[in-house]
Amino acid sequence: MASRRLIIRGIRLLLILLAVGVVTILFRHVSRTREPQYEESEKHIDFVGGAQARPRRPFNDKMKQERLQQGQSAVVPKVVHFIWLEEKPFRFHHLLALKAAFRHIRPETIWFHTNIQDMGKHGDEASEQYWKETKLIPNFKVVPWEGPKYNREQDYKNKNYLRLAVMIEMLRDHGGIYLDIDVIALKSFETLRYYDFVIGREDFGLSTGVILARPRAPFLEHWYQYAHNSQSGHFDPEDALFDVAMDYPELVHIEEFGFRRRDAWKGPDDWGNLFHGGIDHSDNYAVKLYYGLMEKEYNPEQIKSLRSSFGALARLSYYASPSYSTTNWHPPKGAKNVVPNIIHYVWFTPHEFKFHHFLGAKSTVHIQKADRILFHTDAEPGGFWWEEFKRIAGPLLEIVHCDQPNDVFGRSVGNIPHKSDISRMQILLKYGGIYLDSDTIITKNLEPLLKYPYSMGMEIVGLNNGIILSAPNSTFLNVYYNSYKFFDDAQWNWNSVMEPYRLSAENPDHIHIETTGLSRPHWTDWWDMRRIWRHEGKLDWSHVYAIHWIYSYHGDEHDPEQIRCFDDNFGEVARLIYYGSPELMCEKLLTFDK
Asked: How far apart are CA 530 and CA 522, in angstroms?
């Protein structure tokens, strides 16, 4: 009898447990599909997506207690993704975001996903120039986006939802690091690549401005499924993101502070803190600017003197240093020259010595009045203008055999311009003197600069290594040369142009920087090399010691007869060197429209 009672009680208990389980399952299903309940009824601007006003989301302690564990190896591909889906101008701060990603994350590829066919046509001339500069970033690739892949196009009407839809599709298929177009990366993301899925925290929720994911990460799959709600059939990514994070905290690593602003920013009233004050973001992996709230657009010249957190971030992204490096020290009165008045050229591979090469070389004789001209080469040039220069230079010219370097500090060097970069430093360490690229023309004697142990000129994105003045074995040149221990032959101007600028900020007492005297008359415009071939807006070059023409941007070769009639800066300088006067020498003028 007792055993029968026990059996009946057991059956009743089992039925009760089954009933509780069914109720629990039904409750969880209803709670996921109904409108989310919030702790607060007061409305706040939620900058999770920056698209609309919505209630503040609670942050459950469960999300803090159950965290995704770091893996044993990196699982997130080293690919950075940007998304651009609007016909709008490409501005300077967009360029900063892309440069910062390249500089600090060092991705294998930067993918720019867009449905815009010609990015350069949706803005002013400055926008076009910034886009052209963007395309020069190493490993940058435009990836056309032709429409939604996993859902109907009408589900993507909201611009912010569209961005998130594309982002989820892209990360599901490829994985990688997604960055909003106004996010500035500040340091390597390497340690974060060991997590399956990483997202950042903001005061009002989770920020989609920075996301790291491996392809088909479980959190991504849940996010996609939650977003495509089976009842509505519409894409609702922001609510879905928070719900997935609440339900599956073990599948996501949340960066509490690594991606968020450090200025106690609560909303639009505080947006200016970053642009007007000094806030330390040195511990951040990245920071989102929320630049859409900013009415003013800056340019490369203006950020040099901008005293704010944004100014430091912009300089770090663009110039490789948070401080703008200019030297105000001068040699003591009566100091003697420490840089020999010796001109050095580096000429690798056999090719013709053309008229513009002749003009530059002639300027070293007639303007600089060099004591010696050393031509370091593995193949002496030829042609009419080479023979003419040898006649003019006479005993000043010395041909010095120089083999092309194949490595530096054990790192392979295959690019000919990079070989020249290395050789010019090695030559100056040994001899000292004045190195000139073959498309540089001296317009004023460099005597005042020979008292500085090392001098370079500013370039748009660093220092111009096409003109270098150095004492033998100078301190800064040693620092500069030793930075090639980290040389990367795949990066075009990283070591040669960007790195010396960064080093100048760390060694300001060992380098003199000419702002516009050793590059071009108005180097503050990235495309100013085009202006010096035009009559319109001719530049004043009276203060300039030398002009680095970057002749490949022009390309056409000329002769003494043509330069008589060129009504532009090149014509003026060419006539000064060849004829002794910059004045026009004919009535029928020639100009270049391209």
From this structure: 11
Taking only the tens place, the pLDDT of each residue in 115-146 is 888 887 777 888 888 898 898 888 899 999 87
Q: pLDDT tens digits, residue range 235-275?
A: 667 778 888 988 999 999 999 888 887 765 555 555 667 77
pLDDT per residue as tens digits for the range 79-110? 999 999 888 899 999 999 999 999 899 999 99
Buried b vs exposed e over 334-366: b needs ≥16 C-beta within 10 Å? Answer: eeeebbbbbbbbbbbeeeebbbbbbbbbbbbbe
- Report how far residue 313's alpha carbon sits from residue 263's, in angstroms, rounded to the nearest whole number: 15
Q: What does the alpha-carbon distance between residue 376 and residue 358 come to, in Å, rounded to a whole number?
A: 16
Name all domains of the chain by residue range, CATH numbers in brackets.
Answer: 61-255 (3.90.550.20), 268-319 (no CATH), 342-519 (3.90.550.20)
Taking the C-alpha atoms of residue 475 and residue 471, their distance in angstroms, rounded to an integer, is 9
Q: Which residue has the tokens 């100013």?
A: 528
Q: Taking a C-beta distance cutoff of 8 angstroms, is the pair 209, 164 a contact?
A: no
Cβ density class 129-160: b for 16+ within 10 Å, e for less: bbbebbeebeebeeeebeebeebeeebbebee
The sign one gets for the Cα dihedral 235, 239, 243, 246 is positive
In whole angstroms, give the CA distance from residue 494 to residue 21.
62
Number of neighbouring beta carbons within 10 Å of residue 565: 16
